[in-house]
């Protein structure tokens, strides 16, 4: 069983949101998380910045409201992207809106983990600003390269994360193949530290 | 958020591998007004019902409204002895790192990882980097672990510990009571860290002994023997080492929309922040406030309430300021009432609430109007965190109390 469509090659004009410390409250405010399901969260993405206070009227300047980025599948972010709350809704909202790749100089660890479990590639690249000139880019996960104009840049991603995204793998299925080893570990640990299991 | 994981698991027809090692806390959206019966968050009742049903089906213990052991998970977990040294603890909440103060490996995860943990009793992890922050000297009078956490963030930045397991060490940390250590580790996630940790020691063991879910009798002695082995070896090396001097820390105040945007309360704002309506170069002391909040998994423990009450005794909240205090757990609330702290707060004009996350974040329902300026003992000052357009200045409980009395941002000393 695959958890989501694999991420392989993604192309297009990236939407630049080049501020540092974009937190998950900004990506999706708590007040927008009033449903149990993941579908349809795209309309709540960046609600606090995208809409005028207390309405659904678009703020025309906000990057995702600009017509040239309406189809963007790649988002460019600043340092420490996705900091704050662990809410996975932040990634569900990005994915539902259409984002498949976020390129940033760094990601908060919980957000990064949430991305790779939901078919969003968190690509670590220092010089993100150079990709924001309006020209299309192509992100090739297998090669770990971003092509832009005539140039290519390598980006970083941990090998297990890369494998999950490329294969659209379900982590639980993968781990379950290790069932006997895990059971043996728990049995040994239970004998050594019974108070943990009591 | 646990109910999202449990529901998804049930839909996939996967079982919880060991429900005895899983606990559910009703904290984020629970109403905190006295006499509460549920939640005031729109759509929240469905969440609570879903959580209760999913836990009942899976055989998971729920700490619910009316339960003496209910509280914010990162406050109640340690005080119940559910968190223990050497334990591996995950929870779909970013402040799980708080519990690293007990020498546990505790970190926040998303809903999908929670599902994985429930279904397999494991997580797939990339090994975190290691960082040690050694804090020499002692904190000055009126300076708290919260001020230290904010000072560390101001120095090293909101991504200063990105992806790291951070050990807090040194004289200042060894001198801290356990509740202060929990406050310090709470804000490791604000630092981008995977977790924060403090070596277990005699102070911790004395604090843990006799807690409801801690081992007892022979099991206590056996556990203690293993816990004494957990501290970092002499000569251990870390990927990154920082030193910091506790004597340099003053009471701190947030001025911006990242917790790293914090300065000594007597300083001037270093830059403009339009959302906060703060001007670069302007003093922060004296900025008029509309509301004051004491509580949260950062500063909702008994020692926090005592520190605030010490400031408030015999004084009054300034006219026009709405002030409330929300104990971090039901047992903190009971202990505070046994000492008469509730009367100190209500006499001063604070609302005395039931335990929960409350106004630490705003998910809809009753709240403050846009543009309100709040001084808050919480951990995050993100845009909209406490409501649409609400401006949050994070600080220690004593600073919140002093500001509530003054009606403006104030130094507690
Ligand atoms: S008190 Fe605030 S920071 Fe802590 S768990 Fe609750 S909402 Fe999160």
| Greatest chain-chain contact | A-B, 51 and 67 residues
Overall 3D shape of chain B: globular
CATH topology of the largest domain in chain A: Aconitase, domain 4
Q: Within the largest sheet of chain B, what's the order of strands?
A: 13-12-11-14-15
Task: Report the mean per-residue pLDDT of chain A as an integer.
Answer: 94
Shape label of chain A? globular
Strand order of the largest sheet of chain A: 1-6-7-8
Number of strands of chain B: 15
State the end-to-end distance of chain B: 39 Å
Number of strands of chain A: 8
**Strand content bin of chain A:** 15-25%
The gyration radius over C-alpha positions of chain B equals: 20 Å
Mean pLDDT of chain B: 96
What would your notes on this structure say?
The complex is a heterodimer of chains A (198) and B (413). With 198 residues, chain A is α/β, with parallel strands linked by helices. Chain A has 2 domains: 9-167, Aconitase, domain 4; 170-198, no CATH class. Helix content of chain A is 29%, strand content 16%. In chain A, the strands form 2 sheets. Chain A has a 4-stranded antiparallel β-sheet with strand order 1-6-7-8, with no helix packed on it. The two termini of chain A are 35 Å apart. Chain B is an alpha/beta fold and 413 residues long. Chain B has 3 domains: 2-86, no CATH class; 129-248, Aconitase, Domain 2, CATH 3.40.1060; 252-406, 2-Layer Sandwich (Aconitase, domain 3), CATH 3.30.499.10. Chain B is built from 14 helices and 15 strands. Chain B has helices at residues 2-11, 44-58, 73-80, 111-120, 145-156, 171-174, 178-186, 202-208, 218-227, 296-299, 302-312, 330-338, 341-348, 397-406; strands spanning 23-25, 61-63, 88-91, 105-108, 129-136, 164-169, 195-197, 240-245, 252-254, 262-264, 291-294, 322-325, 351-352, 373-376, 391-394. A 5-stranded parallel β-sheet of chain B has the order 13-12-11-14-15, covered by helices on one side. In chain B, strands 7-6-5-8 form a 4-stranded parallel β-sheet. Chain B has a two-stranded parallel ribbon with strand order 1-2. Chain B is globular and about 55 Å long. At the A-B interface, helix 4, helix 6, helix 7 and helix 8 of A face helix 1, helix 2, helix 4 and helix 9 of B. The complex binds iron/sulfur cluster. Residues 27-28, 72, 74, 93, 95, 296-297, 357, 360-361, 378-379 of chain B line the site of iron/sulfur cluster. Chain A: One of its GO terms (biological process) is L-leucine biosynthetic process. Chain A: Its EC number is 4.2.1.33.
């Amino acid at each position: 069983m695959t958890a989501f469509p694999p991420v392989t090659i993604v192309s297009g004009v990236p939407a630049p949101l080049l501020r540092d410390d974009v937190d998950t409250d900004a990506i999706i405010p708590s007040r927008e998380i009033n449903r149990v399901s993941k579908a349809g969260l795209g309309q709540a993405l960046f609600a606090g910045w995208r809409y005028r206070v207390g309405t659904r009227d678009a703020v025309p300047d906000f990057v995702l409201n600009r017509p040239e980025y309406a189809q963007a599948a790649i988002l460019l972010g600043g340092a420490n992207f996705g900091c704050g709350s662990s809410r996975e809704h932040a990634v569900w909202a990005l994915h539902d809106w259409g984002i498949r790749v976020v390129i940033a100089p760094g990601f908060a660890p919980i957000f990064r983990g949430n991305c790779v479990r939901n078919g969003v590639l968190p690509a670590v690249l220092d010089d993100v600003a150079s990709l924001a000139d309006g020209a299309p880019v192509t992100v090739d996960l297998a090669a770990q390269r971003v092509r832009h104009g005539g140039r290519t840049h390598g980006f970083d991603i941990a090998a297990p994360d890369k494998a999950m995204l490329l294969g659209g793998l379900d982590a639980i299925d993968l781990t379950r193949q290790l069932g006997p080893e895990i059971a043996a570990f728990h049995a040994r640990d239970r004998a050594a530290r019974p108070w943990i299991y009591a | 958020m646990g109910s999202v994981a449990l529901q998804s698991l049930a839909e996939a027809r996967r079982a919880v591998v060991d429900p005895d090692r899983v606990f559910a806390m009703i904290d984020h959206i629970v109403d905190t007004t006295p006499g509460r019966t549920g939640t005031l968050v729109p759509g929240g009742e469905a969440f609570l019902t879903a959580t209760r049903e999913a836990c009942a089906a899976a055989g998971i213990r729920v700490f619910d409204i009316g339960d003496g052991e209910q509280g914010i998970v990162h406050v109640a977990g340690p005080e119940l002895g559910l968190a223990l040294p050497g334990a591996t603890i995950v929870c779909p909440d970013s402040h799980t790192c708080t519990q690293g103060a007990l020498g546990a490996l505790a970190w926040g995860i998303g809903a999908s990882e929670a599902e994985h943990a429930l279904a397999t009793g494991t997580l797939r992890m990339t090994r975190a980097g290691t960082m040690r922050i050694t804090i020499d000297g002692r904190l000055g009078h009126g300076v708290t672990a919260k001020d230290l956490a904010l000072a560390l963030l101001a120095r090293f930045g909101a991504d200063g510990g990105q992806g790291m397991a951070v050990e807090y060490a040194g004289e200042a940390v060894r001198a801290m009571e356990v509740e202060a250590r929990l406050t310090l580790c709470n804000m490791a996630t604000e630092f981008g860290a995977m977790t924060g940790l403090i070596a277990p020691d005699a102070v911790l063991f004395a604090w843990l002994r006799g807690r409801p879910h801690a081992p007892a009798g022979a099991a206590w002695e056996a556990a203690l023997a293993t816990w004494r082995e957990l501290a970092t070896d002499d000569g251990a090396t870390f990927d990154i080492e920082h030193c910091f001097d506790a004597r340099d820390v003053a009471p701190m105040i947030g001025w911006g929309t990242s917790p790293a945007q914090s300065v000594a309360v007597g300083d001037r704002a270093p830059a403009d922040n339009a959302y906060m309506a703060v001007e670069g170069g302007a003093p922060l002391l004296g900025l008029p406030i509309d509301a004051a909040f004491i509580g949260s998994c950062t500063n909702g423990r008994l020692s926090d309430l005592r520190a605030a009450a010490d400031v408030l005794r015999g004084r009054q909240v300034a006219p026009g300021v709405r002030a409330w205090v929300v104990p971090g757990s039901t047992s903190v609330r009971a202990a505070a009432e046994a000492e008469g702290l509730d009367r100190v707060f209500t006499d001063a004009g604070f609302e005395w609430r039931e335990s929960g996350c409350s106004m630490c974040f705003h998910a809809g329902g009753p709240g403050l109007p846009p543009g309100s300026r709040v001084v808050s003992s919480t951990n995050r000052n993100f845009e909209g965190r406490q409501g649409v357009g609400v401006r949050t200045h994070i600080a220690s409980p004593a600073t919140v109390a002093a500001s509530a009395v003054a009606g403006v941002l104030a130094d507690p000393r």
